[in-house]
Amino acid sequence: MRDRCQECPLPHVNLKLGPGLSELSVARGSGKGSSSQQTVVATRAGILNHSSNRSKWWVEGNSRRYVPAPQESVIGVVSGRSGENWRVDIGAAHPASLDGLAFEGATKRNRPNLKVGSVLYARVSLAHKDMEPELECFDAQTRKADGFGELKGGFVTHCSLQMSRLLLDPKHFLLPLLGSRFPLDVAVGLNGRIWVSTKEAKQTIAVVRCVEAVDPDGGGMDEVSVKKFLGEMEL
Amino acid sequence: MRPPSPSIPEKEFVYQALKQSLRLDGRNHLDARTPTLDFGPDLGWVECGYGKTRVIAYVEAKMTKPPPERPLEGIITIHSEISPMASVDYEPGRPSEEEITITRMLDKILRRSDAIDKESLCIVAGERVWHLRLTIHCLADAGNMLDCACLAGIVAFKHFRKPEVEVIGDEVIVHSAAERSPVPLAIHHMPFCVTFAFFPDPSMRPVLDPSLLEQRLSTGLMSIALNAQREICVLQKAGGVPIAAEEVLQLIDVAVTVAKDLDKFVQMRLREDWETRKIEIM
């Protein structure tokens, strides 16, 4: 993996390293004339991916434990409050903190009414290995909600991290297939949590079972089998 | 850190679905997950799975001197380890209430129900007996770990064979498996554990073999350990929810059918495994 990174002839000027890669600076020689060279190493096992212009590189693995990375959308559960901030469980090693004012239209007087156990769709705004991750429920520039915020009703199901990335791929068959059967609202968090809301309970159950069946970590079912599987359920 | 209890939407949805007699994995409320049994290369090594719940159990035997108060009986000990690997709920070092319940139930069901004949484990009275050690490792917890661990434990005992021993005078000769085929343990009956979960609202009927979410949201669990001959070994009801006597009897009837099915399944799997272990003697 390291070789392939070095292979690319001209490193992009705006080289950005995503999850799974980190930069190591290795000092060469000592005393006078020492030079430091930047080396990129993989910090987790998986497939190395890059954007079309080779400016962004990241590693996609199929782990179950979520490691927060900046700008990723996640689904969290409020687990308490500490002062001005909410403590949110996002399935990572440490709870994340969410500023009570990081919502659209929130002011000191008017802040969202969250309870312990509320489910949130949020973006990771800060993820540093030595600090608690931080979340926000709005776009910091426009101060608009942009789809983030509290998720009311519905149900939260868990899947592998690989599955959550697959579902975010617009070319993946599952969500369009389910959407053609019945109307549904879905929010996919990259931390392996999926929020589903449908009109009827059995439709939500169908979504939960399909996600579990398609998950490469479990069933790994393909499109034809899922259609059959859906047909067997009485919807 | 204790795990957070299920979120509000999860709780409301599970209750709403249960009121319509729907379960998240598509089962009926009195349907159990189909167990899986995998045997290892050694005799007495079993991996048991209930859906995504996985437990490994293995039996080892060694010879020891019996305690003076019971010179004619062998010793059985059960070691259960529930590590944080199973679920984030479990912490090393400090056993939670749930862990203690599982450990004590395993002890009651497998050891104190006298499923295994202890006197047949005696080699020389007061001098040498077999000491059986059952180790249970919980690998993943997706609900109802007690039933899974219990099935793994009893199947491990059933699968295990101890070396043949010959006593001539004061001398004890242990024959290796190559010399004489090892002998199975004397097992009087096979207890199976069946767990039901109860919910606060009477419109939600009790469910068999609860999943992790159902178990967390339940107000009480009832575990019945019984064998296929309809003999109840242990009945434990945890949590404070009151149940009518008729309901308990109805659930026991359900448990009897489950135990009978499990008994057939275990016998079939053991026979299948035994077929693969035949060695031709030249």
From TrEMBL, chain A:
Task: Give the Pfam families listed for this entry.
Answer: KH_6, Rrp40_N, RRP40_S1
Assign the protein's first listed, main location to one coarse class. cytoplasm
- SUPFAM superfamilies on file: Eukaryotic type KH-domain (KH-domain type I), Nucleic acid-binding proteins
Q: Where in the cell is it found?
A: Cytoplasm; Nucleus, Nucleolus
Name the domain of life this protein comes from.
Eukaryota
Q: Does the keyword DNA damage apply?
A: no
Give Gene Ontology CC terms: cytoplasmic exosome (RNase complex); nuclear exosome (RNase complex); nucleolus
Q: Which GO terms describe its molecular function?
A: RNA binding
Q: Which InterPro entries match?
A: Exosome_RNA_bind1/RRP40/RRP4 (IPR026699), KH_dom_type_1 (IPR004088), KH_dom_type_1_sf (IPR036612), NA-bd_OB-fold (IPR012340), RRP40_KH-I (IPR049469), Rrp40_N_euk (IPR041054), Rrp40_S1 (IPR037319)
Which keywords does the record carry? Cytoplasm, Exosome, Nucleus, RNA-binding, rRNA processing
The record places domain K Homology at: 154-201
Q: Which family does it belong to?
A: Belongs to the RRP40 family.
What protein name is recorded for this chain?
A: Ribosomal RNA-processing protein 40
Q: Which organism is it from?
A: Pisolithus tinctorius Marx 270
TrEMBL record, chain B:
- Protein name, please? Uncharacterized protein
Please give the family membership noted in the entry: Belongs to the RNase PH family.
Its cellular-component GO annotations read: cytoplasmic exosome (RNase complex); nuclear exosome (RNase complex)
The UniProt keywords, alphabetically, are: Cytoplasm, Nucleus, RNA-binding
User: Where do the Exoribonuclease phosphorolytic domain residues begin and end?
Assistant: 44-163, 189-256
| Single Gene Ontology BP annotation | U4 snRNA 3'-end processing
Q: Which InterPro entries match?
A: ExoRNase_PH_dom1, ExoRNase_PH_dom2, ExoRNase_PH_dom2_sf, Exosome_comp_Rrp42_subfam, PNPase/RNase_PH_dom_sf, Ribosomal_Su5_D2-typ_SF, Rrp45
Q: Which organism is it from?
A: Pisolithus tinctorius Marx 270
Signal sequence annotation:
none
What is the predominant subcellular site recorded for this chain?
A: cytoplasm
Q: Which Pfam families match?
A: RNase_PH, RNase_PH_C
Write out the GO MF terms: mRNA 3'-UTR AU-rich region binding
Cellular localisation: Cytoplasm; Nucleus
